[in-house]
Every structure is written in C-alpha cells, then in structure tokens.
Amino acid sequence: MQGLRKTLKPNERMTFEYVMLAGVNDADEQARQLANLLNRHDLRAKVNLIPHNPAEPLPYQPSSMERVETFREILESKGVHGFVRRPRGRDILAACGQLAARSTPGRAVMS
C-alpha cells in the first residue's frame, strides 16, 4: 500500500473497483473493513462499487441496489468516496464479465 501512495500526484485519488457479490462481500462490516483499510494506509482513494453482472456458469448474484447504496453510505461516513457504477448491457448479456463467462460445451469462450 505504501507504493500506491507514492504514485499519486497532489490532489489525485487512487481508484479501486469493488465488484459487489450478494451475500459474499456486501455486508456492512465488510464496508467498514474496506474503509478502515484505506484509511489505515492513508490512501486518498475512491471506490467504484460495481454490482456483479450475473452470467452462466458463475454462481454469484448481484447485490441489491439498496445494499450497494448502504455499502456506499458506510464508506462515505468513514471518509472514503464511494461511487455506484450503474450496470449497462445486462439485458443483452454484454455487461462487464458476462461475455468472458459465456461458455460452449467443453470449453469457455473468451470474448
């Protein structure tokens, strides 16, 4: 984490992408842990919260938008800037992660 700080210019923030998986990493305590980790290392950071895009054969589901918003509010209450990335392309299975997760019989198809 020390090395990350050294790469920042004045007034620049490090961006972290956090994929929200329902029941896996979206609990209030996990939001507090993430904020504490970033604060403990004195990182000027922002966190993009990304609801997972469900895709076969992955077993994960996206966190509800209410859960994502609560997670964001906890980060903000601890001084960490959180932003919610709105999913796009889910309806045609073209959202981030969905194309790479598609598979054909016997092998994965990477798009």
Topology:
Elements lengths: L1 H6 L6 E7 L7 H13 L4 E7 L13 H13 L3 E4 L13 H4 L1 E2 L2 E2 L3
Parallel strand pairs: 1-2, 2-3
Antiparallel strand pairs: 4-5
Structural account:
It is a single chain. The chain is α/β, with parallel strands linked by helices and about 110 residues long. It is about 30% helix and about 20% strand. The strands form two sheets. The protein has a three-stranded parallel beta sheet, with helices on one face. Helix 2 (about 30-40) packs parallel to helix 3. The relative contact order is 0.19.
Offer a concise description of the structure.
This protein is of the alpha/beta class and 111 residues long. 32% of the residues lie in helices and 20% in strands. The protein is built from four helices and five strands.
Give the beta-strand count. Answer: 5
Strand composition percent: 15-25%
Q: Please report the distance between the alpha carbons of the first and last residues.
A: 32 Å
Shape label: globular
Largest sheet, strands/sense/barrel = 3 strands, parallel
- Oligomerization state: single chain
Tell me the radius of gyration: 16 Å
What would you call the structural class?
alpha/beta
Neighbour order of strands in the largest sheet? 1-2-3
As a percent range, the share of helical residues equals 25-40%
SSE arrangement, N to C:
HEHEHEHEE
Arithmetic mean of pLDDT: 81
| Poorly predicted regions | 107-111
Number of helices: 4
